Amino acid sequence: MEIIYLAGVRERTLIAVKPDGVQRRLVGQIIQRFELRGFKLVGLKMLQVSEDLLSRHYSQLTGKPFYPDLVKYMTSGPVVVMVWEGYNAVQTSRAMVGLTNPADAQAGTVRGDFSIHVSRNVVHASDSPEGAQKEIQLWFQGQELLNWDCCYHNITCEL
Ligand SMILES: Nc1ccn([C@@H]2O[C@H](COP(=O)(O)OP(=O)(O)OP(=O)(O)O)[C@@H](O)[C@H]2O)c(=O)n1
Ligand SMILES: Nc1ncnc2c1ncn2[C@@H]1O[C@H](COP(=O)(O)OP(=O)(O)O)[C@@H](O)[C@H]1O
Ligand SMILES: [Mg+2]
């Protein structure tokens, strides 16, 4: 019982600011939303994504007609990738990011506030706890993730 509860509190998700978000200088605002919501940053880096990493990240999409354009977009410039931790991080982050197509994303979400086209939708967010675990392992080395005590942790979550 205790273990399941702690797993939910310490859930991690992978969020990436895509090249359009970096070019448009939205990185700070996106980080701020996750900080203010109450999540804890445990990993952060900027990188130029390789086609190999992208094909592993989007392995279910490689056969889609838009995949070649997705590769061009995602490799067009640097990406800022981060891992956020906290209670129910995956589900809450998806709600904060909004639906895939910005036309369907609610105002108040990252996509609903900052994007207009599905192929330039500013951020990535893991869509399940299992997917998040896979993506975190794909994008980060173990030592790049920090376990640190955040003094707000027991204020934002019931422990
Ligand atoms: N017709 C489409 C569908 C998707 N995409 C791009 O492909 C990404 C991955 O699609 P999908 O995984 O279905 O969307 P999300 O899970 O919402 O986005 P992400 O995985 O990037 O978080 C989208 O974010 C978008 O950048 C696109 O350019 N054109
Ligand atoms: N029909 C589409 N046309 C163009 N790009 C798409 C389309 N569907 C998805 N994408 C792109 O692929 C990304 C990954 O897709 P998916 O994982 O299904 O959605 P999400 O990004 O919301 O998790 C989307 O964010 C979007 O950038
Ligand atoms: Mg996705």
Characterization of this structure:
The chain is 43% helix and 15% strand. It is an alpha+beta fold and 159 residues long. The protein has a single domain (12-144), classed as Alpha-Beta Plaits (2-Layer Sandwich), CATH 3.30.70. The longest helix has 11 residues, at 27-37. The chain is globular. A four-stranded antiparallel β-sheet has the order 2-3-1-4. The structure holds cytidine-5'-triphosphate, adenosine-5'-diphosphate (ADP) and magnesium ion. Cytidine-5'-triphosphate is lined by residues 61, 66, 70, 100, 118-119, 121, 124-125, 127. This is Nucleoside diphosphate kinase.
CATH domain fold name: Alpha-Beta Plaits
So how many helices?
9
Radius of gyration: 15 Å
Order of helices and strands: HEHHEHHEHHEHH
CATH superfamily: Nucleoside diphosphate kinase-like domain
Strand coverage percent:
15-25%
- Distinct ligand kinds: cytidine-5'-triphosphate, adenosine-5'-diphosphate, magnesium ion
For the record, what CATH class applies? Alpha Beta
Total DSSP E strands: 4
Shape: globular
Catalytic activity: a 2'-deoxyribonucleoside 5'-diphosphate + ATP = a 2'-deoxyribonucleoside 5'-triphosphate + ADP; a ribonucleoside 5'-diphosphate + ATP = a ribonucleoside 5'-triphosphate + ADP
GO molecular function: ATP binding; metal ion binding; nucleoside diphosphate kinase activity
EC number: 2.7.4.6
Keywords: ATP-binding, Cell cycle, Cell projection, Cytoplasm, Kinase, Magnesium, Metal-binding, Nucleotide metabolism, Nucleotide-binding, Nucleus, Transferase
